[in-house]
Amino acid sequence: MIDALVRDIHAAPLATGGATPDSRLEADLGLDSIAKAELLLRVEQAFGVKLPLETFAGSTTPADIMRALQHAGASDTRAEAGGRTSDSDALRVSSEHYVDGDGYGTGTSQDPGLPHDARTLVDALRWHVDRHAQRVHSVILREDLPVQTLSYGALYRNAMRSAFGLRALGVDPGDTVALMLPTGSDYFSSFLGVMLCGAIPVPLYPPAQAAQIAEHFQRHAKILENAQVTTLIVDARVVTFGQLLHASVPSLRRIVKPAQMSAPAVGEIYRPRPDDVAFLQYTSGSTGDPKGVVLSHANVIANLRAMGEAAHVDGNDVLVSWLPLYHDMGLIGAWFAPLYWGFPLVVMSPLTFLARPLRWLEAIQTYRGTITAAPNFAYERCVRIPPDSQPAALNLTSLRLAFNGAEPVHAETMRRFAARFAADGLDAHALTPVYGLAENAVGLAFPEPGRGLTTERICRDRFADAHQAVPAAAGDADALEVVSCGRALPGHQIRIVDDDGASLPPRHIGKIEFRGPSATRGYYRNPAQSGKLFDDGWLDTGDIGFLAENEIYVTGRAKDMIIRAGRHFYPYELETQAGRVPGVRNGCVAVCGAQDPVAGTERLVVFAETRAHDTAVRERIRMAIQTAAVTLFGGPAEEIVLLPPHGVLKTSSGKIRRNATLARWQHTGEMPQQPGWRQRIEIVARTLGPAARRGVRRAAMVAYGLYCWALFAAIAPGVWTVVALQRDRRHSWALAARASRLFIALAGIRLDVRGLEHLDPPQSSVTSRPSTSEHSEHAAPLSTDHRQIAVVNHSSYLDGLVMLAALPYPMSMVAKRELAGQFFAGRFLSRIGTRFVERFDTRRSLDDQTTLMQCAAANERLLFFPEGTFVRAAGLRAFHLGAFVAACTARCAVVPIAIAGTRAILRDGTWLPTRGAITVTVMPALEPPGTDLHSAAALRDAARNAIAPATGEPCVDAVAPLEPLHTAAP
Description:
Layout: H1 2-10, H2 33-47, H3 53-58, H4 62-75, H5 77-81, H6 121-132, E1 136-141, E2 148-151, H7 152-169, E3 176-180, H8 185-196, E4 200-203, H9 213-227, E5 229-234, H10 239-248, E6 254-256, E7 267-270, E8 277-282, E9 292-296, H11 297-311, E10 319-321, H12 328-341, E11 345-348, H13 350-355, H14 358-366, E12 371-374, H15 376-383, E13 401-404, H16 411-420, E14 431-433, E15 435-436, E16 443-446, E17 455-458, H17 460-465, E18 480-483, E19 487-488, E20 493-497, E21 510-515, H18 527-533, E22 534-535, E23 538-548, E24 551-557, E25 562-564, E26 567-569, H19 572-579, E27 584-596, E28 601-610, H20 615-633, E29 639-643, H21 658-668, H22 676-725, H23 729-746, E30 750-754, E31 788-792, H24 798-806, E32 812-816, H25 823-831, E33 835-837, H26 842-857, E34 862-864, H27 882-890, E35 893-900, H28 902-905, E36 917-922, H29 933-951, E37 956-959
Parallel strand pairs: 1-11, 3-4, 3-5, 5-6, 10-11, 10-12, 12-13, 13-14, 28-29, 30-36, 31-34, 31-35, 32-33, 32-34
Antiparallel strand pairs: 1-2, 7-37, 8-9, 15-16, 16-19, 17-18, 20-21, 21-23, 22-23, 23-24, 25-26, 27-28, 35-36
Helix pairs in contact: 7-8, 9-10, 10-22, 11-12, 15-16, 19-20, 22-23, 23-24, 26-27, 27-29
């Protein structure tokens, strides 16, 4: 059976005489993922069994398939019955599984409203949770497992638990967290959990083909390094791969599985802002190394609204998708769109589609799907499904939009797809080519819904010579057909420019540029590439095309364009034609232009994968490709290179990496394909150096931490003894301050103190100070007679020591009364003038508050840490009112002071300090706007808002437990 498939695909038998149990499906037999899926489908039909999806993903040799076949034959009751079970039987569930109790779902006209006021994805999710937590968000189809239904409330609860779990593990707001997870509820909750804890998600694709694991490792390591990822969330099946990355990427601190992230969702959480980075979408790298597109919440929300408006979506829609969630089309278009617009998502694994493409269409039938999306190859794959494997009854009448995007759209594929499934009720007008790119979130141009495929036939010669899209004459057999992708989304603009940036008129070929509210601010930590992206407010798509009737026609990628003797050619048609040559692996052809310095133009180089070894067969393949080149380009290719399987490099989404393929061939002169086991050995060897360097750095950190403790042990006892015996508070403070500065200096910590001029020294002669309170225009500030209270953020045990070293004169720190009872800490703090307050006994707490107000009125300089006890997780927490009530009552100005860097040096829960720098910023004083509680609250908020930017940490707010949410378990 394998030999027959090899002959069908490569039009030639194996040079070795046939497959063996240990032949490698990819390297030895030349079967890529699609061919392997075809093989396993033939096995299932021939033996009357159903193989698990793991067989499609994990089989590397015929022996693996035989073992899976034996197991299936022993346990599959369908094989005993001798009949083939329709795949749709595993999908059929009653509508109650995805329509909740209030009737929302397919077939209802009820509109639950939309989160038009939402400014972030978290706002949109919370909007739905607050109004209909029980409503179904997604239906997850899993192979040979029960269908899983996830409500909005359950999604939010799971995401919150993931967020608090990440915070407990040490993930801070602003950190980057990569996800390498399969499609499922864990992916959804983990992704949103990263957002909810204030970190930045970075979606990655898991390893797929063993034959390209070395390149996979290299590309992922580059992404993790560029993104400075601190945490990698992985599925249990790729933990080993994650550990290899861990050893090679210095910033990567932890590898976790979703089960390790769950924690009670009670405490403080970060609330994203519209300008915050929602996630980093790394481009596929089809024309170079992957670049991290920065997308804010505002960008994504704008794109979701524009796409929904253009597609006329409403609450009656149901989106069915198998698209991978690490790709922008699957992540934003297929997941975030239903999340925002409130209609159900029916989702399955990409592997399910690859192994059983009919599942996609059967899910549309079963769930009455109205919207779906896929790249062109998916429609082509469905066209090639053998008719005898298709169920007799397939109903696609519900489908109103079938988007085709993410790669060049072939009109002929669309026509064949429409014709193939017309008898199943598919409306050809549902087929909708669209255009978009990660730099604009995902969507940029949509046609009017229900219009169907629209194309232009243009003159090939005028296209190549004059760079114009001139309509071809009727009957012109050499005309070039180009697909329309519609008009720019609402609020967005598209223009065509020449190489000098000048706008071109309609039907002139040029670079496609765009602008609008979805446009990225640039590439993450890549200023050089970001600078190339922008052109006077417009962004370069990297694509070439033309406008006609305000509709965009994409003709190719700028970097893929080949210039020969002044004529412009694009590789796509020749790649398609070469892929149809018997013996060439379809979809595995790269047509490139290589610089020829002698001729002053470009040489046409064609790379084509083949399994053929026979010299005569290979020569026939070259001749057929050459004939196609002459027909399409008017001249022969200078070089035709036949490669073994996987010699043509591809991106994670299957796009041809032409430049990378050409560069590797030019560098090596050949395309070696090493076995997977050898690649793994080389990867492990490559990690030894980084792992050793990581070990050295760790040893140095431990040595430094021990040195700091030894230094503290040398200084502290003597200082404590003198201070404990000292009666003069000012002398005690001065000694403690000098000792603190000495410790910081000897520890190699750089202390930068700014803004000391904002602190009035005792008995200041200054007579006036302008109010900086945001409430001063509503109420005249009270005269404070230059009395001041300082408020400081609190993030580490080092904060008290830092304030001793930074302040120019003594202040009375306010501390919890529990410290007063400690022999060493209590005695030392008392001697330097610390005021202790009760936190738990209400009566005594009020007495202490009264005492503090009296001290402030008596011009005693108080220093508060209004956050209270610090915690491990980063973030500026809510301020208690005590300091601000005292300030308003005693008519004292409040001086905000921000400390940055102490948490990084000595975080709560760790005992070894690390190297770092500390900045103390003293800010202008804030005058109390009044004496009432409202004024105290306003003063508190003004102080927190002033301190937050200087700390380098975001504000976090307390959240209530999630249990009151009426959510159903998934």
